[in-house]
Amino acid sequence: MRRFFPTSRVALALAAGVRAQSTAEKKLTIPEGAKERKELFDKLTKSVEEHKKSVDESKKNILYTAAEAQNIRRKFNDEIDAAKSEAVLNFGKDMIEISDSLIAVCRSIAEYRKKKENIEPKVSSLFSGVDLSLKVVDSVLGRHGIKKVDIPLGSKYNPDTSVHTFTSPETPEVPAGCVTEVVKQAYSYNGNIVRHAEVGIAEKPDKDVSP
Protein backbone atom coordinates (compact mmCIF):
# COMPACT_ATOMS: atom_id res chain seq x y z
CA MET A 1 0.00 0.00 0.00
CA ARG A 2 1.46 3.34 -1.03
CA ARG A 3 1.99 6.18 1.40
CA PHE A 4 1.63 9.79 0.47
CA PHE A 5 3.43 12.52 2.40
CA PRO A 6 1.55 15.60 3.15
CA THR A 7 2.14 18.43 0.74
CA SER A 8 3.67 20.64 3.42
CA ARG A 9 6.37 18.09 4.24
CA VAL A 10 7.33 17.64 0.60
CA ALA A 11 7.52 21.36 0.14
CA LEU A 12 9.78 21.71 3.16
CA ALA A 13 12.12 18.99 1.87
CA LEU A 14 12.36 20.59 -1.55
CA ALA A 15 13.04 23.96 0.00
CA ALA A 16 15.83 22.51 2.15
CA GLY A 17 17.43 20.93 -0.92
CA VAL A 18 17.33 24.19 -2.83
CA ARG A 19 18.95 26.04 0.09
CA ALA A 20 21.75 23.44 0.35
CA GLN A 21 22.44 23.64 -3.37
CA SER A 22 22.46 27.43 -3.24
CA THR A 23 24.94 27.37 -0.33
CA ALA A 24 27.27 24.99 -2.19
CA GLU A 25 27.15 27.17 -5.30
CA LYS A 26 28.01 30.22 -3.21
CA LYS A 27 31.05 28.40 -1.80
CA LEU A 28 32.30 27.44 -5.28
CA THR A 29 31.69 30.80 -6.89
CA ILE A 30 34.84 33.06 -7.20
CA PRO A 31 34.08 36.47 -5.72
CA GLU A 32 33.71 39.25 -8.24
CA GLY A 33 37.10 40.96 -9.08
CA ALA A 34 39.30 38.24 -7.51
CA LYS A 35 40.55 37.05 -10.89
CA GLU A 36 41.59 40.56 -11.88
CA ARG A 37 43.34 41.04 -8.54
CA LYS A 38 45.23 37.75 -8.99
CA GLU A 39 46.33 38.75 -12.48
CA LEU A 40 47.50 42.12 -11.14
CA PHE A 41 49.36 40.39 -8.31
CA ASP A 42 51.07 38.04 -10.78
CA LYS A 43 52.08 40.99 -12.96
CA LEU A 44 53.48 42.87 -9.97
CA THR A 45 55.36 39.78 -8.80
CA LYS A 46 56.85 39.30 -12.25
CA SER A 47 57.77 42.99 -12.44
CA VAL A 48 59.46 42.82 -9.02
CA GLU A 49 61.46 39.77 -10.10
CA GLU A 50 62.52 41.49 -13.32
CA HIS A 51 63.58 44.61 -11.41
CA LYS A 52 65.48 42.44 -8.94
CA LYS A 53 67.34 40.77 -11.80
CA SER A 54 68.07 44.19 -13.27
CA VAL A 55 69.41 45.43 -9.92
CA ASP A 56 71.58 42.33 -9.52
CA GLU A 57 72.94 42.80 -13.03
CA SER A 58 73.64 46.47 -12.30
CA LYS A 59 75.50 45.50 -9.12
CA LYS A 60 77.63 43.05 -11.08
CA ASN A 61 78.42 45.71 -13.67
CA ILE A 62 79.31 48.22 -10.95
CA LEU A 63 81.61 45.73 -9.20
CA TYR A 64 83.24 44.80 -12.50
CA THR A 65 83.76 48.46 -13.41
CA ALA A 66 85.20 49.21 -9.95
CA ALA A 67 87.59 46.25 -10.21
CA GLU A 68 88.65 47.30 -13.69
CA ALA A 69 89.24 50.87 -12.50
CA GLN A 70 91.32 49.58 -9.58
CA ASN A 71 93.42 47.45 -11.93
CA ILE A 72 94.00 50.44 -14.21
CA ARG A 73 94.92 52.62 -11.23
CA ARG A 74 97.31 49.96 -9.89
CA LYS A 75 98.91 49.54 -13.31
CA PHE A 76 99.23 53.32 -13.66
CA ASN A 77 100.86 53.59 -10.22
CA ASP A 78 103.25 50.74 -11.08
CA GLU A 79 104.25 52.53 -14.27
CA ILE A 80 104.83 55.75 -12.32
CA ASP A 81 106.97 53.90 -9.75
CA ALA A 82 108.94 52.23 -12.54
CA ALA A 83 109.52 55.58 -14.24
CA LYS A 84 110.63 57.13 -10.94
CA SER A 85 113.01 54.25 -10.25
CA GLU A 86 114.50 54.51 -13.73
CA ALA A 87 114.98 58.26 -13.34
CA VAL A 88 116.60 57.81 -9.92
CA LEU A 89 118.92 55.10 -11.22
CA ASN A 90 119.98 57.17 -14.22
CA PHE A 91 120.64 60.13 -11.95
CA GLY A 92 122.39 57.87 -9.43
CA LYS A 93 124.75 56.41 -12.01
CA ASP A 94 125.93 59.90 -12.96
CA MET A 95 126.38 60.83 -9.31
CA ILE A 96 128.25 57.58 -8.61
CA GLU A 97 130.76 58.46 -11.32
CA ILE A 98 131.29 61.84 -9.65
CA SER A 99 131.70 60.07 -6.32
CA ASP A 100 134.30 57.71 -7.84
CA SER A 101 136.32 60.68 -9.05
CA LEU A 102 136.12 62.44 -5.69
CA ILE A 103 137.11 59.26 -3.84
CA ALA A 104 140.15 58.90 -6.09
CA VAL A 105 141.11 62.51 -5.38
CA CYS A 106 140.62 62.01 -1.65
CA ARG A 107 142.93 58.99 -1.73
CA SER A 108 145.58 61.02 -3.49
CA ILE A 109 145.15 63.77 -0.92
CA ALA A 110 145.55 61.25 1.90
CA GLU A 111 148.80 59.99 0.36
CA TYR A 112 150.00 63.57 -0.09
CA ARG A 113 149.25 64.40 3.54
CA LYS A 114 151.27 61.40 4.69
CA LYS A 115 154.30 62.63 2.80
CA LYS A 116 153.88 66.33 3.49
CA GLU A 117 154.06 67.46 7.09
CA ASN A 118 153.41 71.15 6.60
CA ILE A 119 150.64 71.98 4.15
CA GLU A 120 149.83 75.52 3.18
CA PRO A 121 146.48 76.82 4.48
CA LYS A 122 145.17 77.44 0.96
CA VAL A 123 146.00 73.89 -0.11
CA SER A 124 144.55 72.47 3.10
CA SER A 125 141.37 74.46 2.51
CA LEU A 126 141.18 73.05 -1.01
CA PHE A 127 141.55 69.52 0.32
CA SER A 128 138.80 70.15 2.86
CA GLY A 129 136.56 71.36 0.03
CA VAL A 130 137.09 68.08 -1.81
CA ASP A 131 136.20 66.10 1.31
CA LEU A 132 133.08 68.21 1.78
CA SER A 133 132.07 67.71 -1.86
CA LEU A 134 132.29 63.94 -1.44
CA LYS A 135 130.06 64.11 1.64
CA VAL A 136 127.51 66.20 -0.26
CA VAL A 137 127.43 63.70 -3.13
CA ASP A 138 126.95 60.81 -0.69
CA SER A 139 124.17 62.75 1.03
CA VAL A 140 122.38 63.40 -2.26
CA LEU A 141 122.61 59.73 -3.22
CA GLY A 142 121.29 58.73 0.19
CA ARG A 143 118.28 61.04 -0.09
CA HIS A 144 117.32 59.24 -3.30
CA GLY A 145 117.69 55.81 -1.70
CA ILE A 146 121.09 54.97 -3.20
CA LYS A 147 123.47 53.80 -0.50
CA LYS A 148 127.05 52.57 -0.30
CA VAL A 149 127.55 48.89 0.45
CA ASP A 150 130.23 48.47 3.07
CA ILE A 151 132.91 45.95 2.06
CA PRO A 152 135.54 45.78 4.81
CA LEU A 153 139.12 44.93 3.95
CA GLY A 154 139.89 41.34 4.86
CA SER A 155 136.25 40.27 4.45
CA LYS A 156 135.33 37.20 2.42
CA TYR A 157 134.90 37.93 -1.28
CA ASN A 158 131.21 38.05 -2.21
CA PRO A 159 130.38 37.89 -5.94
CA ASP A 160 126.87 39.20 -5.20
CA THR A 161 128.28 42.60 -4.27
CA SER A 162 131.73 42.67 -5.88
CA VAL A 163 133.80 41.77 -8.91
CA HIS A 164 137.51 41.14 -8.48
CA THR A 165 139.73 42.98 -10.94
CA PHE A 166 143.12 41.84 -9.67
CA THR A 167 144.73 39.48 -7.20
CA SER A 168 147.58 39.75 -4.74
CA PRO A 169 149.41 37.24 -2.53
CA GLU A 170 147.72 36.32 0.71
CA THR A 171 149.10 37.55 4.02
CA PRO A 172 148.56 36.48 7.63
CA GLU A 173 146.13 39.39 7.98
CA VAL A 174 144.29 38.73 4.69
CA PRO A 175 144.00 35.04 3.78
CA ALA A 176 143.22 33.75 0.30
CA GLY A 177 139.76 34.55 -1.01
CA CYS A 178 139.45 37.74 1.03
CA VAL A 179 139.34 41.38 -0.07
CA THR A 180 142.68 43.18 -0.09
CA GLU A 181 141.56 46.49 -1.60
CA VAL A 182 138.35 48.21 -2.68
CA VAL A 183 138.99 50.18 -5.86
CA LYS A 184 135.38 51.24 -6.41
CA GLN A 185 132.51 51.19 -3.94
CA ALA A 186 129.36 49.11 -4.38
CA TYR A 187 125.96 50.83 -4.30
CA SER A 188 122.45 49.55 -3.69
CA TYR A 189 118.97 50.89 -4.39
CA ASN A 190 115.92 49.50 -2.57
CA GLY A 191 118.01 46.56 -1.42
CA ASN A 192 119.28 45.70 -4.92
CA ILE A 193 122.86 46.12 -6.08
CA VAL A 194 123.00 48.77 -8.80
CA ARG A 195 126.79 48.92 -9.04
CA HIS A 196 129.15 46.13 -7.98
CA ALA A 197 132.33 47.01 -6.18
CA GLU A 198 135.67 46.52 -7.90
CA VAL A 199 138.01 44.78 -5.49
CA GLY A 200 141.29 42.95 -5.28
CA ILE A 201 141.39 39.58 -3.57
CA ALA A 202 144.17 37.58 -1.99
CA GLU A 203 145.27 34.27 -3.41
CA LYS A 204 147.75 31.61 -2.45
CA PRO A 205 151.07 31.90 -4.26
CA ASP A 206 151.83 29.29 -6.90
CA LYS A 207 154.06 26.54 -5.57
CA ASP A 208 157.22 25.82 -7.52
CA VAL A 209 157.10 22.37 -9.01
CA SER A 210 160.57 20.72 -9.12
CA PRO A 211 161.33 18.76 -12.28
From TrEMBL:
The keyword ATP-binding does not apply. InterPro entries: GrpE, GrpE_CC, GrpE_head. Residues 41-86 form a coiled coil. One of its GO terms (biological process) is protein import into mitochondrial matrix. One of its GO terms (molecular function) is protein-folding chaperone binding. GO terms for cellular component: PAM complex, Tim23 associated import motor. It holds the Pfam family GrpE. Residues 1-20 form the signal peptide. Belongs to the GrpE family. This is GrpE, putative. It comes from Angomonas deanei. The lineage of its organism: Eukaryota, Discoba, Euglenozoa, Kinetoplastea, Metakinetoplastina.
